[in-house]
Specification:
The protein is built from 9 helices and 8 strands. The chain is an alpha/beta fold and 275 residues long. It has an 8-stranded mixed β-sheet, with helices on both faces. The radius of gyration is 17 Å and the shape is globular. The chain binds zinc ion (ZN). Zinc ion binds next to loops.
Amino acid sequence: MSASHFKPTATESDPNAPTVVFFHAHPDDEAIFTGGTIRQLANLGRHITLVCATSGEGGRPAAEGETGHLRQTETKKAAELLGVDELLFLGYEDSGLVGEVETGFAHKPVDGAAKALADALEPLERPIEALVTYDSDGIYGHPDHVQVHRVGKAAAEHLAIDCIYEATVDREYLHFVETHVVVEAGLGERPENYGLASTHIGRSTLEISTTVEVSAELDVKRSAMAAHASQLPADASVFQLDRKAFAAVYGQEWYLRSGPVGVLDTLDQSRPNLP
Ligand SMILES: [Zn+2]
């Protein structure tokens, strides 16, 4: 396992400015769950570091060549669109949807992986303002996502980061809109009738501390999702949504904050009524 490092955008961030670290399990998670937030922060001139634990080799196989390599390339494209300053791959193996890859990230000792994350961040030589991970159920239960939660928490302790945002989805809100890709990934099919609010996907509305309204960033979020074409091809359900339906499903991003009020709480929380 070896970490790799890319600089997707030629940004001119203040060299001493703190960074906001988004720690994700696989390529495409950054766009789906946090893409609008990243773009909004970048628009405000914040320095953004995106870390992927794996290259998502367990996703749909590439038509040609090696899936992990293709997905890294797709992530570079998405990161560029989102305004990411630093992109890091920790080099762990994708564990698969049910953790079937025994050498995968989900099965690695938490302390060692937290140290690998901390070591990867150290050369940035800038303070970390906040760390974004996943809720303790990995949003929909993927073992690599649950491991991101654990490893992120341990790394935050190690690096003395007191502000953590756990990305999640609002399952009660999503109950009322068209399907979200996380529902398909986590449940297969959307439960009929009033089932979604009682599933294990995400969190209930009341548990969510921070809802970032990202409708202004939706076009770029959609493009960043589309950059992951090996996993989200043009005929994927998400791209069949019209503009209004896409805005309803992907126009908000949800977090559980632990620690003091931080940078994500300064973003747009306006929750406008949908058109
Ligand atoms: Zn994932």
